[in-house]
Write a structure and sequence with these properties.
With 82 residues, this protein is an alpha+beta fold. It has three helices and five strands; from the N terminus they run E-E-E-E-H-H-H-E. The radius of gyration is 12 Å and the shape is globular.
């Protein structure tokens, strides 16, 4: 999964999609996931980093990451062609 190339992210968690004018706010974990997606990291790499950074069990992270990725797809922040 790739984040759209034109998505703007601020250090405070503000997310702006200039393609349709939508904006969102995410927490620090969500922001780090979006930045990882912008850098082209795989979902496995992101999951492993979050588990390590936040010392949380794998099952919780997998569910929360899956839910977050589905949410950003629903908000049209991902590029299905890449």
């Amino acid at each position: 999964m790739k984040l759209l190339k034109n998505i703007a992210l601020s250090d405070t968690g503000f997310v702006f999609n200039p393609g349709n004018g939508d904006s969102f706010s995410v927490n620090p974990i969500g922001l780090s996931i979006l930045k990882d997606l912008q850098e082209g990291k795989s979902e496995d790499a992101i999951r492993n980093r979050v588990i390590e950074d936040y010392q949380t069990d794998k099952e919780t992270i997998e569910k929360d990451l899956y839910d977050f990725l589905k949410m950003i797809e629903q908000f049209n922040l991902t590029d299905y062609h890449e």
